[in-house]
Amino acid sequence: MKQKILSIDNLSILLPAGADRQYAVQHVDLELHAGETVCVVGESGSGKSLTARAVMGLLPAPHVRVAEGSIIFGAEDISKVDYERLRELRGSEISMIFQEPMTALNPVMTIGNQIDEIFRYHVSMSAKERVKKALSLLFEVNLPDPEKIIDAYPHELSGGQRQRSMIAMALALGPKILIADEPTTALDVTTQAQILQLIRDMQKRLDTGVLFITHDFGVVADIADRVVVMQEGKIVETGTAKQVLTKPKHSYTKSLIAAIPRLKPRKARLRASEVVLRAEGVYKSFGSGGSFFGFGKPSREVKAVQNVQLELRRGETLGVVGESGSGKSTLARCVIRLIDCDQGKIELGDVDITKLNRNELRPYRKRIQMIFQDPFASLNPRIRVGDIISQGPLLQGVERHDAVNRAYKLLDTVGLDRRSFDRFPHEFSGGQRQRIGIARALSLKPDILVADEPVSALDVSIQAQILQLLDEIRTQMDLSMLFITHDLRVAAQVCDYVAVMQHGKIVEMGPTAELFVAPKDAYTKSLLAAVPGKDWHFSEINK
Amino acid sequence: MSDFWSRYRRNYAAVFGLAVVVLILIMALTASFLYPNDPFRLIGKPLSEPFTNGFLLGSDSLGRDVASGIVHGAKTSLLIGFVATIVSVFIGIFFGAFAGYFGGRVDDILMRVTEIFQTIPSFIFAILLVAIMKPSIVSIVIAIAVVSWPGVARLVRGEFLAIKNREFVQACHTLGMGDFRIMLREILPNCLSPIIVVGSLMIATAILIESGLAFLGLGDPNIMSWGFLIGAGRTMLRSAWWVCTFPGVAILITVLAINLIGEGLNDALNPRLKERQ
């Protein structure tokens, strides 16, 4: 084994009084060797990010601080060194990349200037040398046309390019340790695969030790040498990637791994003949800016949805997958008429709802309902759960008494306590809120559910529960579902049919089982190839 | 509610402000009990210094009691402050809500109107309005409301713009809820906190505008107010300092106290802002 570069011993981090627990992180031991990648895995609130930040000295002091233990780097304990020494170490010996490169980069400075800063503060070089070094760095992280990018501002780059620039900055001085805090979570799956590859390449070249924070076991499978699993501030299991992924010992690790959606398409079910929803030739584009009093032409036009055809039959789940900006959410909102499409037909049964005005539309509203992505934004914080669920039926003319009864029954259906009726949304966790959102969608007894990324904001174990709930409800109520997701693994689990979208168009559509096994379109192939952890056969564990 | 109070209580200055305003309110409500005489009545020797001739705070050039004027004037100042603010907050919510919610051309038209009001210097505009309408308590309230609603409208518009695209509002659309119900029941309750904060600060501004108008002789001539007292005493500032000074101090204390309350409300209603410091 190579030289040990970082060792965290018995680290405890204190939370301010009044937090939900006393310590964010308790008795954590962790070692990192040169050239090694250690993945710290855990769900939200597990303390994985704070552990990483403690190494950088980036804890939000004075409320959150190291209470006990040491972080030994080289010969010194960096949890105790003064601010000046810490500043010397940061960037040159230990550096960090963040989840959201847009907020981690300064929006009013060019990329070149931001890289330049690192050299100016840490080493003495002439201006010319610094520019040359910056260019070569941008070249090393495989950015196209470094001469142009060095003068670009962060908003002019794509998410992937920004993250590459961040990596260039982080590795500028050849640090011994790179801390990566969910660096690919905000990126599309194909970009994620490229960034992971880049981190691996750079690591090999510079012999850096990488401390990689993630919640995604697929990423762990792709990149980790060793794995540390954290739960509620404590390490529950450590081991080599192979050990942990194939023979997990701790029950929590087992449940986490069991909850990962597999890229194994579900078996196709018999297709019903009744078409409940049909979209034909749907177009939608957005214009932006440049008008005075609404006169004049919008200056820029984005074609979000182009010529989309879909058919959803009774009882089936049709997945729409694609990366960000592919138009999948716009399509969902067109289908449910949250936005009006420019052209095309959307038929519910045999009625084209695009032509109806608001009053004519109202009776059709109850046939198609939506589940939203963000459980924290999708419930009005000022309205009680019971009212949230029962207001739909009340609006549709159901008697109050019946609406309330229906709401109680729906709480049972989605697995919430009946006492939730009188509570406010902020008293619930993310998963519970998503259940409330589902209950609201079901309150009008719809035929069709449009689910827009319903699980992407949730932890993996909660995700599995919600997916299972949706599946049960679908069978129970004979619902059809339009399921929007960016995650192919989720799509494989829940969808009978899948449509792949790119740049507003559907590039390929077919039964999940066929499409995942033998994709025809090049884009579909690249999406499937980029799914993290696809080569790994996770141990099949029964919960 | 108890949660709100415990956060408000943490700001001592705000608690002090609240206590002061409550005192002034009690003073205003018991005015005719403390000084049963009409404050306009001439009851003693003109220009008596404080603590002489039975005057607590002295008398003015006609022999009217300054202390009585302050106590009775408090009623006017507070009343105008509250009523004018409530009127302007309603106008502001109306404009802001429609502009923010409907957007597009509705927004363009309503915001251009708002901007027209914002470009006219507010105090001069208020003078103009009162001069046109003939000074009375109603015209003063209208003038103050007309010059101070644009700020509220902009604030409410911004809040509506941010909230109308939240998913819970979209969910209401899919349930078939009407626009007015969404604006009133779903969005408005979520932007009440900043409106309350701005409203509380507007009361202080309204009191200042009212005093200014009365100082210039545009107050209601039949009603005692602090501005009227200052206006009446300003020519004798060097010979009889007390006539102007005490009502001036009353305005200062009231406006300061209301501002402290506004700040306290801000901390208590937006706890996250406070913690970020």
General description of the model:
The complex is a heterodimer of chains A (543) and B (277). In chain A, 36% of the residues lie in helices and 25% in strands. Chain A has 543 residues and is an alpha/beta fold. Chain A has a domain at 4-259: Rossmann fold, CATH 3.40.50.300. In chain A, the strands form four sheets. In chain A, strands 6-7-8-3-9-10 form a six-stranded mixed β-sheet, sandwiched between helices. In chain A, α7 runs parallel beside α8 (189-206). The longest helix of chain A has 18 residues, at 189-206. The radius of gyration of chain A is 26 Å and the shape is globular. Chain B has 277 residues and is mostly helical. Helices cover 75% and strands 0% of the residues of chain B. Chain B has 13 helices and no strands. In chain B, α7 (137-164) runs antiparallel to α10 (192-215), α8 (167-174) runs antiparallel to α9 and α10 packs parallel to α11. The model of chain B is unreliable at 273-277 (pLDDT under 50).
Primary descriptors:
heterodimer; A: about 550 residues; alpha/beta; Rossmann fold; six-stranded mixed beta sheet; 20 helices; about 35% helix; globular; B: about 280 residues; mainly alpha; MetI-like fold; 13 helices
Fold blueprint:
The complex is a heterodimer of chains A (543) and B (277).
Chain A: E1 4-14, E2 23-33, E3 37-41, H1 48-56, E4 65-73, E5 76-77, H2 83-89, E6 94-97, H3 101-104, H4 111-122, H5 127-140, H6 146-149, H7 159-170, E7 177-181, H8 189-206, E8 209-214, H9 217-223, E9 226-231, E10 234-240, H10 241-246, H11 251-259, E11 275-288, E12 300-313, E13 317-321, H12 328-335, E14 343-348, E15 351-352, H13 358-365, E16 368-371, H14 385-395, H15 400-413, H16 430-442, E17 448-452, H17 460-477, E18 480-485, H18 488-494, E19 497-502, E20 505-511, H19 512-517, H20 522-530
Helix pairs in contact in A: 4-5, 5-7, 7-8, 8-20, 11-17, 14-15, 14-16, 15-16, 16-17
Chain B: H1 2-9, H2 12-29, H3 31-34, H4 66-102, H5 104-119, H6 122-133, H7 137-164, H8 167-174, H9 179-187, H10 192-215, H11 226-233, H12 241-269, H13 271-276
